[in-house]
Automatic annotation (TrEMBL):
GO terms for biological process: oligopeptide transport. It is found in: Cell membrane; Membrane. It comes from the Bacteria. Pfam families: PTR2. It is a multi-pass membrane protein. GO terms for cellular component: plasma membrane. Belongs to the major facilitator superfamily. Proton-dependent oligopeptide transporter (POT/PTR) (TC 2.A.17) family. This is MFS transporter. Residues 1-483 form the Major facilitator superfamily (MFS) profile domain. InterPro entries: Dipep/tripep_permease (IPR005279), MFS_dom (IPR020846), MFS_trans_sf (IPR036259), MFS_Transporters (IPR050171), POT_fam (IPR000109), PTR2_symporter_CS (IPR018456). The chain crosses the membrane at residues 37-54, 66-86, 98-119, 125-148, 160-179, 185-206, 227-249, 255-275, 287-304, 332-352, 364-384, 390-410, 431-452, 458-478. GO terms for molecular function: peptide transmembrane transporter activity.
Amino acid sequence: MSTAQADQPRTGRDDTRFFGQPWALTHIFGVEMWERFSFYGMQGILLIYMYYSVTDGGLGMDRGIATGIVGAYGGTVYLSSILGAWAADRLLGSERVLFYSAWVIMAGHIALALLPSVWGLGIGLVLVAIGSGGLKANATAVVGTLYAAGDIRRDAGFSLFYLGINLGAFLGPLITGLLQDSIGFHWGFGAAAVGMALGLLQYSIGRRQLPESSRIVANPLPANRRPLVLGIAVLVVIALAALVLTGVIRADNLAGVVILVTLGAAISYFAVIISSRELNRDERSRVIGFIPLFVVNVGFWSLYQQQFTVLTIYSDERLNRTIFGWEMPVSWVNSINPIFVIILSGVFAAIWSKLGNRAPSAPAKFSLGAIIMGAAFLLFLPWANGAPNSSPLIAIVVILLVFTVAELFISPPGLSVTTKLAPERFHTQMVALYFLSVALGTAIAGWLAQFYDPSNEVPYFLILGAIAIGMGVVLLLVSRPVLALMKGVR
């Protein structure tokens, strides 16, 4: 009997070799962990690299422009998931797009590490954004192929997958921040490139063990239409270059441009999917039921992603980072949230597995996630308007614990419910639509940062916290009609 034949009985619900989940999950877990190591490691030092002075190793940018670029870059990462999803559904399949995207990401980190000045920043961020977009949507889609319809392990599996994401997110800022603080920014970016290389090595060894369904091209593009698509892609690149060269797209309006493009893309995506004749009545209803979840998710991420804009500035200027006479690197604050995710994701996975069909519905989880996120912003108020370096480190630790609880209510269940609601013909593209909500929220987080004033923080934290709580309460009140639209999906 061959090895492949021996492994055949260990599939589906019978395969519980990875903490009760299919063994193939380890391969996606690993590549996503190293990708997040590189992504968050780079992002942990990105903002301060842009606004630190040249003598301190930075680029000396205006801080408001720098936060807008970070938000726009983060939004573009998720916006690029459209391209990755389309390539998977029409050209290559999710697994292959994931693999090729990892190579693009590594090239981006190498550019940041080796190329000087703004050119290195621009080339590196474009490559990382495109590659990460392709990897993110398709890694999630591949995880979905490991579970049969109705497999109650799905939510727990996504929580375990989320553990891999946050293990990388925890280690990345620690390593890159230490290198940046001791020998320079470009060494930190180089460490991110090494991390992605390790992820590629691990995934290259294990990718053949993934199910064949992960390589299926759901809606193949006819060969006679490929030249047209290539021509459109070339025209888009030329148009973008022209807009940049003529000053229509500038560093100071980049976040606003990404917000408008993402909003337009989301509306168009919903319209295309809902109007498709290939959907039956239940599939169309489920996509419509996803809309309120999409809106609340945008609100959640517009606050949560301020860890890389407002919280970075707060940590640099307002936070007392001195521990027994040693000053902790700014980027290490970005490792606090992943620690809590690592600790609590297993707890949440166990709770959802234990509750099974009695667990709160997706609308209820989204509601609670938004409400708790709003409460986290209100927790900044006791230390608002303080002197430089006056906020105690324990305060940020507690606030980020609340961030984490909110995240675990909304993010892993969000990925899971998206794969459940997705029509068969639009499976990967529905995952991309979920990431569009994250893109929009991330870009908004960068745009909002320009209104943050360390000398007058109360209005900022109070208003944003109240809006998030209000969105969560409204979704909770309409959860029954939303569930009715979801047609049996919880």
